[in-house]
Request: fold
Amino acid sequence: MFSCAGFTFVSSAFAYAPRTAGGSLLKWRSQQIVISVSNTGSEHVSAADLENAVRKSFRKWSDASGVEFVIKRTSERDVSSRKSGGDGFSLVTIAPTAANMLLFEADENNSGVTRLFFDKKGRIVEADIVLNPSALFTVDGSRGSFDLESTLTHEAGHFLGLAHSDVRGATMYRHQGKNGVFNLPGTYPRTLASDDMAGIRHIYGSPRKGRNSFGSLSGALSNQQFKGRDRSVWLESASTGTVVAGVEVRANGSFSFKSLPVGDYFLIATLGDYSIINQGVGVSIEAGREKRVTVQSKRSSSPNRVRSFGFNGQISNLAVPVEAGHRYTVYAKINGEFSDRLRLESGSPGISVDDASLAFVYERKGETVVSFEIFVSAFTGRGEYAFSVYDGFSEVGYLPGVLIVDEVRNPWHSAFF
Ligand SMILES: [Zn+2]
Reply:
């Protein structure tokens, strides 16, 4: 796993997050951005593979928003130094030069760094992506390596001004696994999540095609009793249960989503530990309109006891990829002792949890691991899915994006009897 340099890990729940500086949104002024890819590879990555992966990675962000890229080759190799204020050329490099290697001195397990240069108004004027020249990147899913395209897709999000998201399974999630996580075959997920697409459209608007299929949402929490604490709101599709987007609540209790796909949603507000602070609210987004909503927050909130999720004997911060049409055993790590009052429930009609399967696995240092059997029905579509956590009948927690249905194969399903 790696976490990107320049961002420290905090255990708070923020979803897609445009980066800001001095109160302004960091954003490229032009909707057409020129990128130069270094023609020097590394020990593990050829210049041709690098350029190919850059094209595929940026294309995904382009397809999801109104931004276009012009990709060129260059003999340049070095990241611009912070002191220099940039040279105006946006570079993608993996060349093992001293300047590039230095960026990974503090954390040699880090796979990539994106350095942004912007003016006082928050307009990005240059962004350099440096992939760790010493790290093992592959394009074929080799176990223990970083997937070149997944890593570049994540850094491309930073390049465009996005910070990290706390939707697990999102490309902009702060932790990314290596190929082979949870003992799964194949490559680490490469596709953008709905939350990533919502994030990029928030900054740059939607692609020209389909501009009339988006609307926006703004709202506020009804009271400020949790003021000063990290708060987020998440939107789940009412029909499929996928986590469509999430945003941080501002200090004054307000929040906004721009360019949401038209449809019906279910809105959930949480604190930084993912404990629930509202009764669920239904919201309809209409084309070209801004919907306003006031969210009643609860007077008190019980702490969410579930912190991490797992699969195949591994507990992790990463999303668990599953395939539709199969049954799986998943793990949850909870604070405190085992309680048979604990229940998980999915917002998706296609994903069911067998309550009777809840089982104690082990307890260590005040933390307990439990297991659940889940069934992902054959008609479950691609996307990131959440689980709600119940203590008896009260809903205490919300785990956005812990389960993903994607192109990733997961052959470790339970047999049918
Ligand atoms: Zn990052």
In short: The helical segments are 47-64, 98-102, 148-159, 194-204. The chain is about 10% helix and 40% strand. The radius of gyration is 21 Å. Confidence is low (pLDDT under 50) at residues 1-13.
